[in-house]
Amino acid sequence: MAKTKDNTKITYEIDPYNRLIINKNGKKSELSRFRQVLDGRFKIEENNTVSYHIKAPTPQGAEIPYQVKLQGKWSLSEDHNLCLTLNKWGRQTLGDKLTLQADIIDTAKNFLVFALTTTTKENTQSIYILKLKGAWQADKNNRLTFRVQKEKGSHDILTFKGAWKINKQHQIIYQYEKAQLIRKRKKIHTLIFQGYWDIKDKGRISYVLDAQSNSVFDFKTSLGIFKDKYIKYEVGIGVGNTLSGTGARSKRTLTLSGKWKIKKGIGLIFEVEYANKKTSAITFGAEAKLSARDSISFELKNELNKKIGVQLQLSRKTLDGDGLSFLRFLKSKEEKAVFVGTGFSW
Asked: Following DSSP, what letter does each residue of 108-122 receive, concatenated?
């Protein structure tokens, strides 16, 4: 809520077509003398602030500027619409909550992109884009969140309260159901996150969208199961409003299929194939020793040479190339265990 120069209170609303409504009496009203619907578009500016650009003031609203700057806190509604709770102005208590009827159309590594449908008073429809900048991260309940970048290092958090899963291409997908604006039919929306899996710590697995910007989902898990053709984790996801206690818990079995290899100077790697046959490797250090029937037993470590609580046994059939060379090297050594990892060669 704001005040004009003549101390008149103003309340902002959004109509079903994402147009800004100004109420001059300070509260919601259907009376035209108080309520003005303004044709225009929202625009994201620096630090993810937003303004509403008005196409042309109406005669009775000539004192309204061509641009209304709005400041507040971003959030995601239960129906996956984009919300802005306006900051309090002057001595007012709470700001207005504006809900934009928007569809999520892209989850780029550092952006969250929405499409908004609007219409003019002449019933001409158009679609435009709003793009928020920030970083993707997981919360303490393993839910997907987008941290909206704000000024002075602060951020707002948009929480996706449903449960995610992974597809056959090992990508994270998130689905939600939403009614369409005009026909009111419900439609299932599917979001696909482009990234790769990594394992650095005990009881944790990460899905990296962009390591440089810290767009990484770090999921807390039980201890992983590592076999010759797969890695498997159990992940618990908090669903719904966990803060109010109305949420539930959903379990996901996360299985990565791939192939183990030993690379000189790199270490033990697990190659995973993603979409379009693109591969990415999860890299480990390890203490290795011979076991029965020409198998190698590995105690896995991360890049800091810290054990991650996982043991793995690979047979001779599983290993080829550098792996067979390493097997011959182990046989020639008298040590009980040999380290394989970055900088180590044989």
From this structure: -TTEEEEEEEEE-TT
Kindly report, residue by residue over 127-165, the tens digit of the pLDDT. Answer: 999 999 999 999 999 999 999 999 888 999 999 999 999
Residue 180 · residue 187 · CB < 8 Å: yes
Instruction: Give the H or E element holding residue 107.
Output: none
Query: Residue 286: which of 338, 225, 230, 227 has the closest Cα?
Result: 338
Residue 317's Cα: distance from chain center in Å?
A: 39
Per-residue pLDDT at 9 exceeds 70:
no
At 76-115, the pLDDT tens digits run 999 999 999 998 764 343 458 899 999 999 999 999 999 9
DSSP symbol at 88: P
| 3-state DSSP of 256-307 | EEEEEEEECCCEEEEEEECHHHCEEEEEEEEEEEEEHHHEEEEEEECCCCCE
Per-residue pLDDT at 92: 43
The rounded distance, in Å, linking the Cα atoms of 199 and 205 is 5
* Antiparallel, parallel or unpaired: β 97-100 and 82-86: antiparallel
Predicted structure pTM score: 0.87
Reading the block at residue 190, the tokens are 């599917």
Pairing of strands 165-166, 248-263: unpaired
